[in-house]
Inverse folding.
C-alpha cells in the first residue's frame, strides 16, 4: 500500500528488494537440497523400465488373456458381473454351502508380469540410514505434524520474520511487510497445485506438501494485515487517512487484503468440516481475484503474480491432460457401507497408493453434486479385466448420494441384476508412494483401518503381481474394522491373494472392535486369514515381520504402509520408531509410508 507521498527513502527500498530476493533464493536452495537428497531414489525408480511409465497418465491397454488357475480351497471365480462374483464358501460347521456376495477375486494369471525378471534396485531412504535423527524428526507433535515438519515451518517463519523486521519497524516502514508477502505469492500457489513441481523434485505427492501451502498462506494473511495496519496508523497520525483511501491503488490493496482474509477464514477447520464446498468456492474466488488486485495495487507484485500464474496454469493444463470422461459401474456393498466403482475403460497407468479425483456427471445425484470433485484411493492393481476400482465409503452428503444411486436396482438382458452405469470424470493419478519401489524391499507390513484397506489392497496386489521381479518374501496385512461383517465381502479377494504367491509368506490379520452378532460372523476363514477381537498390537506385528524377513535372508529393508485414522497412523509411527536400532540395521532399515 505504498503511495508516492509515503514511500520510504530509496536506500531502504533497495534493502527491501534485496532482502525479499534473498528470501526467495534461500527457499529455492532449501528445495534444491531436498531434491538432491531424493535424487538417488528418483534415479533408481526411473532407471527401472517397469516403474518409469507408471503413475503419470491413466489409460486403457489391451490385456493378454491367459487361462486362470482355479482356487482350491474356495470355489471362487472372477466375473465382471457382480452377481456372478458371489463366492460359494463351504460352511464346514453346518455342513452346507453358504453363498456370500464378495468382491471379485484376482484373475491369477493376468496379474503376473514376467516380462522383466530382473529384481528392482533397492535405494534406501536417507532417513532410514540415520536412525537417531529420524527417530526425533518423525516424532508426532500434533495431528499431521511431526518434529521435522515443525522445524521446517519454524525455519521458514524465522526467515520471513527476519526479512520483515531487519532494520525495519512495521509502523514506520510498513511497505517492507507488503514486499515480503508479495515475494511469497509463488510459493503459496506452487504448494497448492496438484501437479506440484516441488513434489516431483523431492519425490512426494502434493497432499504431503499441502501443510506448507497452509502455513505460508497463514503467514501471508498475517503479514498483509500488518502491512495494512502500519499504513493506516501512519496515515492517521499524519491526518491523511481519508485522502489516501480515495486513491485507486489503495482501494485495490484493500480488495487484495479482503481476498486474503476471506481465504484465511474460509480455510479454517470449522468451515472445511461444516461445508467443504464453501471452502472451495472462497478459495477459488479469493485466489483468483487476489492476483488481479495485487497487480493493480502495486506493480512490484507483477513478477511474483506472473510466477504464480505460470505454476497455476501449468497445473491446470496437466489436470486437463490427466482427465478423462468415461462410464463407471456403481455397486453398493452394504456390509462395508460403501459404493464400489468399477471403471473398465481405464486399466493402466497408476501405482499402488495413488488416488484419483472423481466427479459424477449424473443429474440423478443433484446439481450441486455435479460441481463436486472427491478424492479416492485406487483400490486395485493396474491391468486387470475389471479396470480401475474405487471404494467410496458413505461418510457425508455426496458419498451417501452416490451410494443411493448405486443401490438403484437395474436389470440386464437376461433379467439379472446389474450395477448402475454413470458417466464420470476421472482426474489423476496423484500421490502415492513417490519414488519408493515397494517390490525392492525384503518384507512388507501394510496396516489399514476401515476404508484404508483400499491402499493395502492396491499395495499388496502390486507386490503379488510383481511375480519374480520382487524381493519381498514376507507380507503382512493388518486390518482393523469396527464390525466383523465387513470381512465377508473381502474373503475371496484375500484368499486369491494368498493362493497366488506360494513362495511369499502372506498373512492377513483382521481385528474387530464391535461385539459379534450371530449373523455377521463369516462361516469360513481360509488358511492365512485370522480374525481376532480387539485392537492390533502393532509393535508385535512389526517385530514379527522384521524377524521373519531377517530369518528369510532379507536385507533390503521392510516397507511399512499405513492408511487409516490418525490414531492408527500415530501408533504405527511409534512402533517403527521404537524398534531396536540393531534389528533395523540388520534388516536393511524400516521405511514408513503414511497414506
Ligand atoms: C487423498 C485422499 C484419498 C481418499 N481415499 C478414499 C477412499 O479410497 N475411500 C473413501 O471412502 N474415502 C476416501 N477419502 C475420503 C473422501 O474423499 C471423503 O470421505 C469424501 O470426499 C467425503 O465427501 P462427503 O461429501 O460425502 O462428506 P462430507 O461430510 O461433506 O465430508 C466429510 C469430510 O471429508 C472431507 N472432504 C469432503 N469433500 C472433500 C473433497 N472434495 N476433497 C477432499 N476432502 C473432502 C472434509 O474434510 C470433510 O470434513 C480420501 C480422501 C483423500 C484426501
Amino acid at each position: 500500500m505504498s503511495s508516492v507521498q509515503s514511500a520510504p527513502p530509496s536506500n531502504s527500498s533497495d534493502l527491501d528488494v534485496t532482502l525479499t530476493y534473498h528470501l526467495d533464493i534461500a527457499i529455492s536452495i532449501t528445495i534444491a537440497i531436498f531434491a538432491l537428497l531424493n535424487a538417488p531414489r528418483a534415479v533408481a525408480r526411473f532407471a527401472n523400465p517397469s516403474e518409469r511409465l507408471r503413475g503419470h497418465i491413466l489409460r486403457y491397454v489391451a490385456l493378454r488373456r491367459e487361462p486362470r488357475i482355479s482356487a482350491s480351497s474356495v470355489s471362487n471365480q472372477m466375473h465382471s458381473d457382480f452377481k456372478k462374483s458371489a463366492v460359494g464358501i463351504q460352511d464346514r460347521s453346518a455342513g452346507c454351502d453358504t453363498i456370500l456376495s464378495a468382491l471379485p477375486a484376482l484373475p491369477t494369471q493376468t496379474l503376473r508380469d514376467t516380462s522383466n525378471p530382473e529384481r528392482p534396485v533397492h535405494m534406501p531412504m536417507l532417513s532410514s540410514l540415520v536412525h537417531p535423527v529420524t527417530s526425533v524428526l518423525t516424532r508426532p507433535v500434533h495431528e499431521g505434524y511431526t518434529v521435522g515438519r515443525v522445524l521446517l515451518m519454524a525455519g521458514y517463519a524465522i526467515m520471513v520474520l527476519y526479512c520483515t523486521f531487519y532494520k525495519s519497524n512495521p509502523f514506520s516502514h510498513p511497505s517492507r511487510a507488503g514486499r515480503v508477502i508479495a515475494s511469497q505469492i509463488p510459493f503459496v500457489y506452487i504448494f497448492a497445485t496438484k501437479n506440484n513441481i516441488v513434489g516431483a523434485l523431492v519425490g512426494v505427492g502434493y497432499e504431503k506438501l499441502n501443510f506448507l501451502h497452509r502455513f505460508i498462506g497463514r503467514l501471508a494473511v498475517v503479514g498483509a494485515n500488518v502491512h495494512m495496519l502500519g499504513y493506516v496508523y501512519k496515515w492517521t497520525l499524519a491526518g491523511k487517512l481519508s485522502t489516501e483511501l480515495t486513491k485507486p491503488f489503495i482501494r485495490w490493496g484493500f480488495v487484495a487484503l479482503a481476498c486474503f482474509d476471506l481465504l484465511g477464514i474460509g480455510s479454517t477447520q470449522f468451515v472445511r468440516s461444516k461445508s467443504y464446498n464453501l471452502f472451495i468456492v472462497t478459495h477459488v474466488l479469493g485466489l483468483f481475484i487476489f492476483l488481479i488486485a495485487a497487480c493493480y495495487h502495486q506493480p512490484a507484485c507483477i513478477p511474483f503474480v506472473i510466477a504464480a500464474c505460470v505454476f497455476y496454469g501449468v497445473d491446470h493444463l496437466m489436470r486437463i491432460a490427466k482427465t478423462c470422461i468415461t462410464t463407471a459401474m456403481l455397486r453398493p456393498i452394504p456390509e462395508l457401507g460403501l459404493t464400489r466403482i468399477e471403471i473398465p475403460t481405464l486399466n493402466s497407468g497408476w501405482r499402488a497408493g495413488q488416488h484419483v479425483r472423481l466427479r459424477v456427471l449424473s443429474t440423478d445425484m443433484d446439481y450441486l453434486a455435479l460441481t463436486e470433485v472427491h478424492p479416492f484411493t485406487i483400490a486395485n492393481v493396474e491391468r486387470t479385466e475389471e479396470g480401475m476400482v474405487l471404494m467410496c465409503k458413505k461418510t457425508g452428503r455426496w458419498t451417501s448420494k452416490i451410494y443411493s444411486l448405486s443401490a438403484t436396482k437395474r436389470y440386464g438382458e437376461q433379467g439379472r441384476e446389474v450395477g448402475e452405469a454413470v458417466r464420470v470424470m476421472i482426474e489423476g493419478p496423484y500421490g502415492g508412494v513417490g519414488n519408493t519401489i515397494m517390490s525392492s524391499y525384503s518384507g512388507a507390513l501394510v496396516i489399514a483401518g476401515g476404508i484404508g484397506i483400499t491402499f493395502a489392497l492396491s499395495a499388496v496386489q502390486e507386490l503379488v503381481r510383481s511375480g519374480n521381479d520382487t524381493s519381498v518374501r514376507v507380507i503382512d496385512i493388518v486390518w482393523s474394522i469396527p464390525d466383523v461383517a465387513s470381512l465377508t465381502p473381502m474373503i475371496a479377494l484375500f484368499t486369491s491373494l494368498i493362493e497366488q504367491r506360494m513362495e511369499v509368506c502372506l498373512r492377513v490379520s483382521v481385528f474387530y472392535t464391535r461385539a459379534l452378532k450371530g449373523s455377521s460372523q463369516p462361516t469360513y476363514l481360509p488358511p492365512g486369514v485370522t480374525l481376532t477381537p480387539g485392537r492390533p498390537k502393532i509393535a508385535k506385528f512389526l517385530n514379527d515381520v522384521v524377524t521373519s524377513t531377517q530369518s528369510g535372508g532379507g536385507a533390503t529393508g521392510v516397507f511399512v504402509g499405513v492408511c487409516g485414522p490418525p490414531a492408527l497412523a500415530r501408533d504405527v509411527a511409534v512402533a517403527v520408531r521404537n524398534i531396536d536400532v540393531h534389528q533395523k540395521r540388520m534388516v536393511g532399515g524400516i521405511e514408513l509410508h503414511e497414506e
Q: What stands out?
A: The chain has 21 helices and 18 strands.
